[in-house]
């Protein structure tokens, strides 16, 4: 694994020891960033099931100002710290050992907000949409934030739910990726070429 593009391009990333973590492959990572970027003009990213930290580090390399990395596994936290050191992003990153739901509540208490969120939970978990709704309730997302949800391709998340709208979906073998846009005012009147109305 490596950083694909940006200021840390080509830097190698360590894998989490053992077989319990399924890192996003370079191929899928490159596809994700071609859909959502590929580069950014600042902002904050959240890597909620960080694993190796590869997605959040790639976002930093491509222009995000800062990133928060969350994982409940000690081995993952240690790997993220090593990869941040190897890529030179320690000063613009925060790393916390916690489970996802508790971490979101803790971030809300600090008034944290994010322009970009990566959600790559273990495939046995099918709660990506619930976590996104929790982010909405806790006001953790900026208007028009982007959420990247990675999951098992045999499973399907809804195209729309609450203030979230799926912009893109792609499948790579057993992995599916959905890109969601967050609309903080989903009931606002739309003035598009279909004559308006509410969503």
UniProtKB/TrEMBL annotation:
It is an enzyme of class 2 (transferase). The keyword Hydrolase does not apply. InterPro entries: RNA_MeTrfase_RsmD, SAM-dependent_MTases_sf. It holds the Pfam family Cons_hypoth95. One of its GO terms (molecular function) is 16S rRNA (guanine(966)-N(2))-methyltransferase activity. Keywords: Methyltransferase, Transferase. Residues 1-20 are annotated as: Disordered. The keyword GTP-binding does not apply. Its EC number is 2.1.1.171. NCBIfam families: 16S rRNA (guanine(966)-N(2))-methyltransferase RsmD (TIGR00095). PANTHER family: METHYLTRANSFERASE. This is 16S rRNA (Guanine(966)-N(2))-methyltransferase RsmD. The gene is rsmD.
